[in-house]
Amino acid sequence: MARQSVDLVIHNAGQLCTLPAHDGGPQRGRALGDLGLIAGGAVAVHEGRIVAVGPGADVRAAYRGATEIDAQGRLVTPGLVDPHTHLIWAGDRADEFERRVAGATYQEIMAAGGGINRTVRATRQASLDALVRAGRARLDVMLAHGTTTVEAKTGYGLETETELRMLEALACLDAQHAVEVVPTFLGAHVVPPEYAGRADAYVDLVTGAMIPAVQAWRARAWPDTLFCDVFCEVGAFDLAQTRRILEAAAEAGMALKVHADEFENLGGVALGVELGAVSVDHIVETSEAEIAAVGRSGTVAVALPPTPFGLAQPKYTPARKFLEAGAALAIATDCNPGTAWCENMQLVMALATRYLGLTQGQALAASTVNAAFAVGRGDRVGSLEAGKQADLLVWAVDDYRQLGYRFGVNLVAQVVKRGRVVWDRAAEAGGGTT
Ligand code: NIG
Ligand code: FE
Fold it and tell me: Is 282 left (phi over 0), alpha (psi -120 to 50) or beta?
């Protein structure tokens, strides 16, 4: 029988990890870490989608690629999905980090007018072009480290005009860059200085003016899912304010996320589950009852180990408890200029193995299939299955157990997005070693 011609065949993968979805959903609880490993596997790709995955002999007997990539016995996985970032901002806060190293806390700096509001001042002054450039530079780093889909939040505008400019920047980046961007409106990141002491009035602005403006933007410019997130925390928004905003966003047809329990437990996780949030994120101080509730729900638990690491704090998400409760767990960078300026999901895996108690295979599943479900894209990306987008990585190592074990260097060899090679370490000057 004649072989079918397709755009691309990747063959000779020593380990092809497909990271399958389970019943069309994430890998839940103790089932986390189902690698779907095929030794000597191959993938056939046509028009940006996977048409076949399986043992190399079977795939190659059926398909001939216009381009053929020999993975040379190395590891092949889905592209990494980073389900929680604050991708675009202007300026930096290196001086605040210096103060933190000397003993000041993140909350002290925030209360003194630094922190998020410092970045808000810089971001309000940045043009659309400047924001796109800043975002593009970070996406370039993410792509080189294997991230092919990223969630990205607004939240450094905190006024309608700048929040919309941030959304516009995210839409531009999604259109221009190989990394796919999933936008989230985070108008309720903190209370901006002009509303100091008047948080409820700011919540009125978010629900009464910003959400309708965001809806109008969406109708014009963003046909896909748009998320709304709130920073539910002491010094940011309390539980009642968080509820008002999330309910208004849900009413406007947005999907929900919550920053909850990063420093203190205000009940944000229970609220997120009640409102059917797609994810609850940070989840360091989450109660046993709330962990159980997440386990019974469709809400994905997103742990952000670079945040406690970035803050040099000893407490991380009790990930194993979430797994015992049957929850779907994902991991993310939280890339932001305050707590965790980290673009690299490989470092997140390294931290997750050590501080969340995940095996390398679990960390990989939490960075791919489950992360895709945490951003509502599990039907399209995150696993190597027929019909899904051909987003995949050829690694410079031959065993998935090298991931997380080795850290501080880039272990990716090639990145394929929608069936095209978009990053290749061999093409990079002085591309590093393994
Ligand atoms: O996820 N928690 C709120 N937002 C970020 C920090 C943002 C910043 O400090 O600029 C976080 O840690
Ligand atoms: Fe965050």
Answer: left
Residue 229: partners with Cβ closer than 8 Å, 6 or more residues away? 153, 155, 184, 185, 186, 188, 256, 257, 258, 259, 281
Amino acid identity of residue 368, one-letter, is: T
Q: Which CATH superfamily is domain 4-79+383-429 in?
A: Urease, subunit C, domain 1 (2.30.40.10)
Report how far residue 153's alpha carbon sits from residue 88's, in angstroms, rounded to the nearest whole number.
8
| pTM (two decimals) | 0.97
Closest-CA residue, ligand 1 atom 1, reads 334
pLDDT tens digits for range 369-409: 999 999 999 999 999 999 999 999 999 999 999 999 999 99
Q: Two tokens at 360?
A: 């390398």
- The ranges of the chain annotated as CATH 3.20.20.140 are 80-374
Encode pLDDT of 140-164 as tens digits: 999 999 999 999 999 999 999 999 9
Beta strands 37-46; 4-17: pairing state = antiparallel
- With a pLDDT cut of 90, the percent of the chain lying above it is 97
Distance (Å) from CA 217 to ligand 1 centroid: 25
CATH superfamily of 80-374: Metal-dependent hydrolases (3.20.20.140)
Please, where in the chain does CATH 2.30.40.10 lie? 4-79+383-429
Residues with CB under 6 A from ligand 1: 86, 115-116, 119, 231, 259, 262, 307, 334, 336-339
Ligand 1 pocket mutation, candidates 100, 191, 262, 336, criterion most atoms within 8 A of CB? 336
